[in-house]
Design brief:
6-stranded mixed β-sheet; DUF2117 domain-containing protein; 370 residues; UCP006598; 3 domains; 27% strand; single chain; alpha/beta
């Protein structure tokens, strides 16, 4: 039997269950695994599993499932460790219904927890799902039960150009991410996002973050990737990979959106990041590749990972609230000539020029070195 495994999120890797399940499945056939998501890549690297789980592409979970289906896998497993069974099952439901056709998908959710479960999203895989649930001491949950409990009514109701999307399994005080950008924080357990003409206008049951909404721009809310809580909860010992970088010249890249593929910058010598959340996420990922960052921030920081890391040689410029994008645009224009990546001969000279640009705009900033 040809088996595909889509590994989603860092928790399933950090918990050790991704490794255990991949080993377990080898008794059933030939196993291939690939990742879905960004922070999961970091977890795979930290766990030394990049030779076992393909992290070479940035794919949505449904895209990874479709890719395995195109490769004629007999069964595809989606393994996830959601913060609750509600969020996990809602995630699996969304993935399955975002896939092309009806893939032979089985979900393993929250193994090791008392509510850990297996879901056969396609009926002809029920027998295999039952067998795996029994052997791994997990509950067997039926897709129709998930639908009836969570999706019996369409969570997106369209009135003219207004869309409302309910978010399942939210706790008060959690960040709400849309396509990788924090757009607000929950104040209750019943949260819904409202968008008009593609722009988020309201966060029911939460406080909206206008700067995040502005940075996000227009979206298709029904298809947007929505997450809540922390992107990575585990406290881990990060693994730093060796690099063979040249000292003859230096590559500097510019990043102003955390939802972009940060891993493509792993061979840069330094990355200028704009925005608090972008800086935190990028610094944490690039730490694994020993890439320092210059973070342009304004103190509007949301806690998006449990513990963040920065490579030696990084510096954080903290401006007054609301200035980070304006300063970032000026740096992008004057230092990068609106090119995403440039080559320079001297990093210290580059830092000096960058700080001079900031000084020309405002004297109200602090520089923190690491």
């Amino acid at each position: 039997m040809k088996i595909g495994v889509v590994v989603h999120g860092p928790e399933i890797v950090d918990s050790g269950y991704a490794q255990k399940f991949l080993d377990f499945l080898e008794d059933y056939g030939t196993v291939g695994a690939r990742l879905g998501g960004t922070m999961g890549r970091t977890a795979v690297i930290d766990a030394h599993l990049e030779d076992k789980i393909d992290i070479s592409q940035k794919l949505f979970p449904s895209q990874s499932v479709d890719k395995f289906k195109d490769e004629n896998c007999d069964v595809i497993f989606l393994i996830n460790y959601g913060k609750s069974s509600v969020t996990g099952h809602a995630f699996g439901y969304k993935v399955y219904h975002n896939c092309q056709d009806q893939p032979p998908l089985i979900q393993m959710e929250r193994p090791g927890e008392s509510d850990g479960s297996v879901v056969a999203w396609r009926e002809d895989k029920m027998k295999l799902a039952e067998d795996i649930a029994h052997k791994m001491d997990l509950q067997l949950v039926l897709p129709e039960d998930i639908h009836n409990n969570l999706f019996s009514e369409d969570p997106c109701q369209e009135i003219s150009n207004t869309i409302c999307r309910e978010i399942a399994g939210v706790s008060p005080g959690e960040n709400i991410f849309v396509n990788g950008i924090v757009i607000g924080k929950s104040t209750s357990s019943e949260v819904a996002i409202v968008a008009e003409n593609g722009i988020i206008t309201q966060l029911i049951g939460g406080e909206i973050k206008e700067h995040g909404v502005e940075k996000l721009g227009p979206i298709t809310l029904r298809k947007a990737v929505v997450k809540t809580g922390l992107l990575r909860k585990s406290r881990v010992k990060p693994r730093i990979l060796k690099s063979g970088k040249s000292n003859d010249h230096f590559t500097i890249s510019y990043l102003n959106h955390a939802a972009e593929d940060i891993y493509r910058l792993k061979n840069a010598d330094m990355v200028v990041t704009v925005g608090d959340d972008t800086t935190l996420v990028a610094a944490d990922i690039l730490y694994r590749f020993n890439v320092p960052i210059i973070g342009i921030t304004d103190g509007d920081l949301d806690k998006v990972v449990e513990e963040g890391f920065k490579a030696e040689g990084s510096l954080i410029v903290e401006l007054e609230n609301g200035w980070d994008d304006q300063v970032g645009d000026k740096i992008f224009l004057e230092l990068f000539n609106r090119e995403e990546t440039i080559e320079i001969e001297n990093i210290e000279n580059f830092k000096s020029k960058l700080l001079q640009i900031i000084s020309n705009i405002t004297s109200q900033y602090q520089v923190k070195y690491s």
